Amino acid sequence: MIQTQVVVVEAPAELVLRRAGDADAESLSGMLTSQPDLSLYMRFQTAIGRPPRPALLQQLVSPNGAAWIAERDCQVIGHAMWAWVKGATVPTAELALIVADPEQRRGLGVQLLTEAAHHALAAGADQFLVMVSAMNDRVLRMVRRRWPTATAEREGALLNFTIPAADFFATVN
Ligand SMILES: CC(C)(COP(=O)(O)OP(=O)(O)OC[C@H]1O[C@@H](n2cnc3c(N)ncnc32)[C@H](O)[C@@H]1OP(=O)(O)O)[C@@H](O)C(=O)NCCC(=O)NCCS
């Protein structure tokens, strides 16, 4: 007798990418709290607490630039932001992001980064700053491969990459 096994495969819930606001602080806090220490350290370069401090969450949802939330099934799975770098000689937007571990390697990081960079460009940024831990191999590779013209400056445990806006969009994919 031949038995037929029926396997039901559920399609992944739709990805929603939208601007962040004050109301997202709590759900973002939940997502960050569930991330491994290493991911949090790579994003913030310091211990941020579990849950993160309210003052930090406020900066993440309402920076002096703009912030985005990625959601699937009404759950926060990613966050990206840009913020003006104070005292920079040319208008410079710092870009930063985090994607929930199970959602990584599906293109969401680059999608979030591109969204934030487009917005910063429209707001007047001439260049982008990406501050990467010298131990963050995957982001170092990502930056160096995509933006070979980026200049890097060492600052303690960080490598600060400056990417001219024109170069960013020439090679973002
Ligand atoms: C960095 C980060 C946001 C990338 O998110 P992502 O959704 O996985 O990114 P993408 O799927 O768009 O992939 C981007 C690149 O990272 C690489 N990458 C992502 N996860 C990886 C992993 N676990 N191991 C190796 N490479 C990885 C991808 O291969 C891709 O590189 P390529 O295009 O040169 O092949 C995510 O890994 C993360 O949140 N890390 C912790 C926080 C952090 O480091 N933030 C950045 C500092 S500002």
Description:
With 173 residues, the chain is an alpha+beta fold. It has a single domain (15-170), classed as Aminopeptidase (3-Layer(aba) Sandwich). The mean pLDDT is 93. β2 and β3 form a beta hairpin. Strands 1-2-3-4-5-7-6 form a seven-stranded mixed sheet, with helices on both faces. The protein is built from six helices and seven strands, in the order βαααβββαβαββα. α1 (25-33) packs across α3. The longest helix has 15 residues, at 108-122.
What's the short story on this structure?
The protein has one domain: Gcn5-related N-acetyltransferase (GNAT) (Aminopeptidase).
Topology (SSEs and partners):
Elements: E1 15-19, H1 25-33, H2 37-44, H3 54-61, E2 66-72, E3 75-84, E4 92-99, H4 108-122, E5 127-133, H5 137-146, E6 151-155, E7 158-164, H6 165-170
Parallel strand pairs: 4-5
Antiparallel strand pairs: 1-2, 2-3, 3-4, 5-7, 6-7
Bound molecules: coenzyme A (COA).
Residues 39, 42-43, 96-99, 104-110, 132, 136, 138-139, 141-142, 145 line the site of coenzyme A.
Largest sheet: number of strands, sense, barrel closure: 7 strands, mixed
Give the averaged pLDDT, no decimals: 93
CATH superfamily placement: Gcn5-related N-acetyltransferase (GNAT)
| Bulk shape | globular
Number of strands: 7
Termini gap: 52 Å
Which topology does CATH recognise?
Aminopeptidase
Bin the helical content: 25-40%
Q: Using the coordinates above, name the CATH class.
A: Alpha Beta
* Radius of gyration over C-alpha positions, nearest whole angstrom: 18 Å
**Bound chemical compounds:** coenzyme A
Low-confidence stretches: none
- Please work out how many helical segments DSSP would assign: 6
Strand order of the largest sheet: 1-2-3-4-5-7-6
CATH architecture: 3-Layer(aba) Sandwich
